[in-house]
Design goal:
Elements lengths: L2 H6 L1 H14 L3 H7 L2 H4 L2 H22 L8 E2 L4 H8 L5 H18 L5 E7 L3 H15 L3 E8 L2 E7 H13 L4 E4 L12 H11 L11 E2 L6 E2 L5 H8 L6 H10 L4 E4 L5 H9 L4 E4 L3 H11 L1
Parallel strand pairs: 1-6, 8-9
Antiparallel strand pairs: 2-4, 2-5, 3-4, 6-7
Helix pairs in contact: 2-5, 2-7, 3-5, 5-6, 5-7, 7-10, 8-9, 10-11
Length: 297
């Protein structure tokens, strides 16, 4: 992940080096060479994805310094990358904070007590109904965590409540219920201890003016006020990612081209399912970056 772009662009390589300096560890070596087991630990995953995303952005900017976003958005952790992209957060601060964020999320719920599952082929209203039913019946914790597309919603909460909600969704016609291999139940009220720790860590961090509006996860509408950044990042830990609504708002403000900056092309796929009129290019490796630059020429 990120190796080819690091080797091709000094500006990208500098980001990986900055992450190593900020964390006092060789994160870059783990990103380039680490095993899947290492990389899927959320305290590693979060700074690794942030670093690779920002490094990719710097490579893109090295080729096209004139390319300025009208809006930025990110899915969960990606909102941190978006905030670095618009200058609201210094990269060194962001990478340290997302490492803490990942560790705090990991430690918020004992292993095995929380889980997440993707509900495929069912609308969000029915998924919400199923969550409400299970909460009412059992008193357990379960809620929509990621509204990814019109027919893909991820639920999060206590393990038994998530399993029961999945069963209800299947009875209501879900095509599939897929348990996710995650280390914690993200974006639900079980993450409140992590939100408290992040709020404390953010107190001494300086937030700079935003060079472009951010379409945030919590409210799914653009915001530009620097004083709101910390509040929204803390709320995001326990609130659902409203990705469908975020894309709808992007379309409402006449966004017609997007670039998914960083590893993978999951968001491009989700956007296609939401509305194909928004064309999204990917930059997951050097070849994809070159193709995107050609498309944007």
């Amino acid at each position: 992940m990120g190796r080819s772009i690091s080797e091709a662009y000094p500006a990208a390589r500098e980001v990986f080096e900055a992450a190593d300096d900020a964390l006092q560890t060789s994160l870059s070596k783990t990103i380039f060479e680490g095993s899947e087991d290492e990389l899927k630990q959320t305290a590693v995953t979060q700074p690794a994805i942030l670093t690779t995303s920002v490094a990719t952005l710097r490579a893109l900017q090295a080729e096209r310094p004139d390319l300025k976003p009208d809006f930025v958005a990110g899915h969960s952790l990606g909102e941190w990358s978006a905030l670095v992209a618009v200058g609201a957060l210094d990269f060194a601060d962001a990478v340290r904070l997302v490492q803490l964020r990942g560790r705090a999320m990991q430690e918020a719920v004992p292993a095995g007590e929380g889980s997440m599952a993707a509900i495929l082929g069912l609308d969000i209203e029915t998924v919400q109904w199923a969550c409400d039913q299970v909460v009412g019946e059992t008193g357990g914790i379960v809620a929509p965590a990621n509204m990814n597309s019109h027919e893909q919603t991820v639920i999060s909460g206590s393990t038994e409540a998530v399993e029961r909600t999945g069963e209800l969704c299947a009875e209501k016609g879900a095509k599939r219920v897929v348990p996710l291999p995650v280390s914690a139940p993200f974006h639900c009220s079980l993450m409140q201890p992590a939100a408290h720790r992040l709020a404390e860590a953010l107190q001494d961090i300086e937030v700079h003016p935003l060079s472009a509006p951010v379409i945030g996860n919590v409210e799914s509408v653009p915001y530009t006020e620097a004083h709101r950044v910390k509040e929204l990042l803390v709320r995001q830990v326990t609130a659902p990612v409203r990705w469908v609504e975020s894309i709808h708002h992007a379309l409402q403000v006449d966004v017609d081209v997007g670039v998914e900056v960083g590893p993978g092309r999951v968001l491009a796929g989700l956007v296609r399912r939401i509305n194909r009129s928004l064309k999204v290019h990917s930059t997951e490796d050097l070849d994809a970056l070159k193709k995107t630059l050609e498309a944007l020429a």
